[in-house]
Amino acid sequence: MPGRAELQKKQEDKHVLEELLDSIKGEIKMKYDGMQLLYSGANMIDEGDNLANEMDFIKG
């Protein structure tokens, strides 16, 4: 049976790992949200280009 000090150390290690995991999850979420914003911005630029091309075509 593990001693009290060993159990305490395992609890501390578990706590540190949980904090690290939460931090990593936060980083991934920020990057994922950022990628969605980039994708959305790229779509807006493409739509603007398409509109400009249509206007040039109409002008002849």
Automatic annotation (TrEMBL):
<protein>
    <submittedName>
        <fullName>Uncharacterized protein</fullName>
    </submittedName>
</protein>
